Structure formats: structure tokens, C-alpha cells
């Protein structure tokens, strides 16, 4: 295994990758970018540089894709159970270094170690083990076409896959794309987010001697350069992108120009609908905890599945808000590496300022602050720490209700008519997630059937579990991930063979 280096920030210690800091794992070797360009990685809790990494340009991407293309013919012929065994071994290696990786993840993302980063590492391990155990299920069909004909189908890998991941959940999304692409027999070039690549690089160090040369490659750098080069590369057969709608459209155009396949997960503005019977005296405490979890407050609201539009029945609106505020008040905001911290920092100054602008605009337009505040301007404090904010006194057509804030901001609107609240929930160009809280299961299931979203939860607000089909509709994306069905649909092609007997 590669050597590591200890970096001490105040009283907390982070063990950074060293071999992988060049940032380019190409054909089984760590190499520096051709241009020599470097990229600084910032700790968002301390506004300080953690380290620098290599930044790839088009030449580096060309080399990585060429290595993946050369490795594809032999990798695709490897038995799927053998590919699965390698994914399981990678999971075991990540598990052996889980605390080290979690601390790196907390330092670079600002996601609290105890509430977010450790659980994300555990989820990544589960994902790799899931695909390690299920990739052998790449079964075809036998077709009864009639006497004298034997017809069957097989699932065939596509070729070189380019995967581009964001900074908010970089490790688990890397695990999903590694598991889906490699498990189904494709080779992979993975580009981590420029703001949070270090934990992914550390995992890549653990994987460097595991897969055959060229099967798993990593390039780092900015999206406009390395990401664009990957998306538009003529030898990339499939692109898997998780990120913003705006960048997703560019990726889709790049894929369409050469008829390549694409899986896109592009965010959301997810509704949380509360029925009166979910807020009775014996349920309201658990309900408030679920609302906070659905909103992803412990991740600073930086989640595409955040239930950021809270629709509560008028009869229980004020009691529910009071209970949510009560629970938010005891959550500690602070350094992500502090064991007592519940909520960490926004990823960077640009995102912090954008969140601030959303809140300021809403307050200036008459929204009432139930809890929280308009954050101070960036630079007045060390780190990017907006308080969890709940707003009311808005209507469904406000910008802050319609657009993805990607910060710890929950907008609360009372409702009386079920038809009206379903219409509000669907009145968005997003369609990723939705949350329904109702004690009456018939009511909840009927509402779920009417809501336009690809991933719904009833009386639950947790994250994805391996095996779930996870993906959006409308402008939230194309395709699904997290399940073996999603992997087969998105990362393989069906081949049909018919024999005249």
C-alpha cells in the first residue's frame, strides 16, 4: 500500500494520500499531469488550503481513455463473479482504512465526521459489497420464437465509461459508479469533483494494484477542462454524471453529438408533505426528526434529495414548525472534524454566497424567518457556516420555493386541500425525490401515486440503500442507479442472437 502523510490542523489530524496527490491514475500508475498544473483543495470549515493536487488537461484525459480502451477487451471477458470478487476486496480495503478516509472526507467537504462522513464511508463499503455480490446476475433470456429457431439474448458491456461526480457525497457516488461500471464489464475513467477529490483519491490508491492496468483510471481537475474533455471524448461509450442541471445539459449535448449513452442525476427541489394524522402528540417528535433528516440539515442542505419544500396541513402547521425549531436548536454547528459537531460547513465561498442571496431575497420580499438568519457576508468569519433556516409566509411561486438552494434552507407552506398540495408538489421542473408523512397508509400510497418523482419515501427520510432504484424524472435526470437493475439497464446493451436449427 502507498505511504501516507499526516497533516495536523489545530488539534485534529488528517492522514492525506501522498502517491495519489498527482491526481492521475492512468494504466495502473500515478503520474503527474502533462502541463504540470496544480489545484488547491480548501477546508471549508477553516478557509485554509489542505493540500494541492494535479489538474488534468485534455492530454491526460486522452491517455486515461486510451488505457481504458486497451484494457476493455480482456476485462469484459473476465467472469462476472471474478469482477465481483475484486469489488468486494476493494470494499474490504476501504473498511480497513475507514476512519482515515472519513477524516479526509470531513476535512475536504465540511461534512461533519460523526453525523455524515463516517456514515458515508460505511455506505460506500455497502455499495461496493452489494455490486460485488450481485454482478453475476447479468442474465439474458431465451425467446420461444417457434420450431426450428433458438433465440437468446445476452448483456454486453458498452466499453469505456466516463464518470463525473460532485463534491457533496463524493465517496458514495464514486463507489456507485465504480461498482456499476466495472461490475458489468466496462472499464472506467473517473473524475472526482475539483472541490473534494481527496477521499476518492485515497480509495483509488487502495485500488491501484487491485484491478488490471487500465481498468480503473482517475483524472482530477476542473470540470471545464477535464470534465469537458471526458464528456466529449470519441472513445467514451457512456457518461455517468451527477451534478447540476446546467452542467448536465452540457454533458447530454456532448453525448448526443456522438450518440453515446448517458446517465444523468441532476438535482431536485423535493416536496415533504405532512398530513394531520402524522403530527399527533405521540408522533410529532419523530415527525420533526424526519423532517430535519429529509431536509438534510446535517449535510448543510447540500443534497439533491433534500426535502426543502415543506407542505404541512394547516391544522398542524404551527405545532410542527415549533417542534422542528426545537430540535434544530440543539444541533451544534462547527468544525467537521470535531466529534461534537452535528452540522458542518458549506463547501466554498461561491455556494455560501449563493445561499445567502437566496435567503436575503426571500426576507426582503416579506418571508418570515422562523429560525435562522440572513448569513453574514463571506469573509466576515472563518469558514462557511450558515445557520439552519426555516422560512414561512411564502407562496409556491417564489424563487426560493422553485429553485434548488443547495443550502440549509427549508421553506414551509400550509395546505388545506389535498388536490392543491399535490399540484404544488408537482409544479416544478424537478422530479427526483419526495417525502410523505401520513399515518393512514391508503392516504400515503394514493398521494405517492400522484406525485411526479422517481424516488419516494413514506414515513421515512433516510438515504439510499443498495438495491433501491434511485433516479429522477423531468429535469432531475435520466436513468437510475444503486440497483443491479439500474446497472444492467444503463451500463450494458442487450445482444440478440437467433439460430436456425
SSE blueprint and pairings:
Elements: E1 4-9, E2 12-17, E3 24-26, E4 29-31, E5 38-43, E6 48-54, H1 58-77, H2 80-96, H3 98-109, H4 113-134, E7 142-143, E8 149-157, E9 160-164, H5 170-183, E10 187-191, H6 198-207, E11 216-218, H7 223-231, E12 238-242, H8 245-256, E13 261-265, E14 271-274, H9 284-294, E15 309-313, H10 317-329, H11 349-364, E16 368-371, E17 389-392, H12 399-402, E18 409-415, H13 418-426, E19 433-437, H14 441-450, E20 455-458, E21 477-478, H15 484-491, E22 492-500
Parallel strand pairs: 9-10, 9-12, 10-11, 12-13, 14-15, 14-19, 15-18, 17-18, 19-20
Antiparallel strand pairs: 1-2, 3-4, 5-6, 7-8, 8-22, 13-21, 16-17
Helix pairs in contact: 1-7, 2-4, 2-5, 3-4, 3-6, 4-5, 9-10
Provide a descriptive summary of the structure in words:
- With 501 residues, the protein is an alpha/beta fold.
- It is 37% helix and 22% strand.
- It is built from 15 helices and 22 strands.
- It has helices at 58-77, 80-96, 98-109, 113-134, 170-183, 198-207, 223-231, 245-256, 284-294, 317-329, 349-364, 399-402, 418-426, 441-450, 484-491; strands at 4-9, 12-17, 24-26, 29-31, 38-43, 48-54, 142-143, 149-157, 160-164, 187-191, 216-218, 238-242, 261-265, 271-274, 309-313, 368-371, 389-392, 409-415, 433-437, 455-458, 477-478, 492-500.
- The strands form six sheets. Strands 16-17-18-15-14-19-20 form a seven-stranded mixed β-sheet, with helices on both faces.
- Helix 2 packs antiparallel against helix 5 (170-183), helix 3 packs across helix 4 (113-134) and helix 4 (113-134) runs parallel beside helix 5 (170-183).
- The radius of gyration is 23 Å and the shape is globular.
- The chain starts with a strand and ends with a strand.
- Mean pLDDT is 95; it is low at 1-11.
Amino acid at each position: 500500500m502507498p505511504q501516507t502523510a499526516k497533516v495536523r490542523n489545530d488539534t485534529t489530524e488528517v492522514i492525506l494520500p501522498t502517491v495519489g496527490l498527482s491526481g492521475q491514475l492512468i494504466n495502473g500508475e500515478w503520474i503527474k499531469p502533462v502541463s504540470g498544473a496544480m489545484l488547491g483543495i480548501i477546508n471549508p470549515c477553516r478557509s485554509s488550503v489542505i493540500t494541492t493536487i494535479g489538474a488534468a488537461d485534455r492530454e491526460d484525459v486522452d491517455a486515461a481513455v486510451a488505457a481504458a480502451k486497451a484494457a476493455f477487451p480482456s476485462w469484459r471477458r473476465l467472469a462476472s463473479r471474478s469482477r465481483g470478487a475484486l469489488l468486494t476486496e476493494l470494499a474490504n480495503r476501504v473498511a480497513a482504512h475507514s476512519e482515515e478516509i472519513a477524516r479526509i472526507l470531513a476535512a475536504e467537504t465540511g461534512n461533519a465526521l460523526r453525523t455524515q462522513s463516517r456514515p458515508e464511508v460505511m455506505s460506500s463499503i455497502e455499495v461496493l459489497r452489494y455490486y460485488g455480490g450481485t454482478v453475476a446476475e447479468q442474465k439474458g433470456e431465451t425467446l420461444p420464437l417457434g420450431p426450428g429457431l433458438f433465440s437468446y439474448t445476452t448483456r454486453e458491456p458498452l466499453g469505456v465509461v466516463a464518470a463525473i461526480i460532485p463534491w457533496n457525497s463524493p465517496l458514495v457516488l464514486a463507489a456507485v459508479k465504480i461498482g456499476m461500471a466495472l461490475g458489468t464489464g466496462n472499464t472506467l475513467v473517473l473524475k472526482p469533483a475539483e472541490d473534494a477529490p481527496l477521499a476518492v483519491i485515497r480509495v483509488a490508491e487502495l485500488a491501484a494494484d487491485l484491478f488490471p492496468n487500465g481498468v480503473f483510471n482517475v483524472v482530477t481537475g476542473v470540470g471545464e477542462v477535464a470534465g469537458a474533455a471526458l464528456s466529449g471524448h470519441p472513445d467514451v461509450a457512456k457518461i455517468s454524471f451527477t451534478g447540476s442541471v446546467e452542467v448536465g445539459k452540457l454533458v447530454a449535448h456532448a453525448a448526443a453529438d456522438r450518440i453515446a449513452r448517458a446517465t444523468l442525476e441532476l438535482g431536485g427541489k423535493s416536496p415533504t408533505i405532512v398530513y394531520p394524522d402524522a403530527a399527533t402528540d405521540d408522533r410529532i417528535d419523530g415527525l420533526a426528526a424526519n423532517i430535519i433528516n429529509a431536509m438534510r440539515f446535517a449535510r448543510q442542505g447540500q443534497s439533491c434529495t433534500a426535502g426543502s419544500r415543506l407542505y404541512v396541513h394547516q391544522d398542524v402547521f404551527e405545532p410542527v414548525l415549533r417542534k422542528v425549531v426545537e430540535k434544530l436548536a440543539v444541533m451544534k454547528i462547527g468544525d467537521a472534524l470535531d466529534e461534537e459537531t452535528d452540522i458542518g460547513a458549506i463547501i466554498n465561498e461561491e455556494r455560501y454566497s449563493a445561499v445567502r442571496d437566496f435567503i436575503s431575497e426571500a426576507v426582503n420580499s416579506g418571508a418570515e424567518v422562523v429560525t435562522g438568519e440572513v448569513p453574514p457576508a463571506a469573509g466576515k468569519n472563518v469558514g462557511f457556516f450558515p445557520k439552519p433556516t426555516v422560512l414561512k409566509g411564502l407562496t409556491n411561486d417564489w424563487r426560493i420555493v422553485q429553485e434548488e438552494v443547495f443550502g440549509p434552507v427549508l421553506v414551509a407552506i400550509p395546505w388545506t386541500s389535498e388536490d392543491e398540495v399535490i399540484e404544488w408538489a408537482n409544479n416544478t421542473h424537478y422530479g427526483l425525490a419526495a417525502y410523505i408523512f401520513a399515518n393512514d397508509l391508503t392516504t400515503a400510497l394514493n398521494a405517492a401515486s400522484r406525485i411526479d418523482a422517481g424516488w419516494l419515501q413514506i414515513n421515512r427520510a433516510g438515504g439510499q440503500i443498495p438495491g433501491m432504484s434511485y433516479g429522477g424524472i423531468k429535469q432531475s435526470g435520466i436513468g437510475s442507479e444503486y440497483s443491479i437493475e439500474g446497472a444492467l439497464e444503463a451500463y450494458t446493451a442487450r445482444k440478440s442472437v437467433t439460430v436456425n436449427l
